[in-house]
Amino acid sequence: IVGMWTGLMAVVMSTIIRIELSHPGNLMLDNMMYNTLVTAHGLLMLFFVVMPILLGGFGNWLIPMMLGSPDMAFPRTNNLSFWMFIGGVLLLSVTLFIESGVGTGWTIYPPLSGSISQSSPAMDFAIFSIHVGGSSSIMASINFMSTAMNTSKTIYYSWTLYIWSVFITSMLLVLAIPVLAGGITM
């Protein structure tokens, strides 16, 4: 349900962005609100739609079934990952309503400590929501890799393309998320 709600939010944001790009200034007169919308849309799609829904929601029952495993390697990690996902989405949603919003995409990334960065509670909420979403994705990824590698009947050459894509995506995610988190908070 939360994944569907997040997906619908992302579709609405994408539609508003496309309308604004086709006729600049007609729908949104405030550039700061537009920049906030673009930033929130990017973060929502990356951390809260693609990874948790593709891997966390759809993959939770499909991957064990395709591997012949009774369940994921760490079932309680799925629950924790899911609840962190909800908290991260709520924090990201709150950033629209605090002061002047999150701002443009470049204000989220380094240099946050520089004079051109935006220091507001909205930025703190956005950064924390990114960390919560990243932690949720890392836990889900480790769970998927553990499930795939520990299944007793695992024969790597017989994996389907979906299993390989999830496995490789999970490996890349575990390597990339800490680098992103470090870059964001430098």
From TrEMBL:
Molecular functions per Gene Ontology: cytochrome-c oxidase activity; heme binding; metal ion binding
Topological type in the membrane: Multi-pass membrane protein
Keywords: Copper, Electron transport, Heme, Iron, Membrane, Metal-binding, Mitochondrion, Mitochondrion inner membrane, Respiratory chain, Transmembrane, Transmembrane helix, Transport
Membrane in keyword set: yes
Family per record: Belongs to the heme-copper respiratory oxidase family.
Record's function text: Component of the cytochrome c oxidase, the last enzyme in the mitochondrial electron transport chain which drives oxidative phosphorylation. The respiratory chain contains 3 multisubunit complexes succinate dehydrogenase (complex II, CII), ubiquinol-cytochrome c oxidoreductase (cytochrome b-c1 complex, complex III, CIII) and cytochrome c oxidase (complex IV, CIV), that cooperate to transfer electrons derived from NADH and succinate to molecular oxygen, creating an electrochemical gradient over the inner membrane that drives transmembrane transport and the ATP synthase.
Record-given protein name: Cytochrome c oxidase subunit 1
Organism, scientific name: Urodasys viviparus
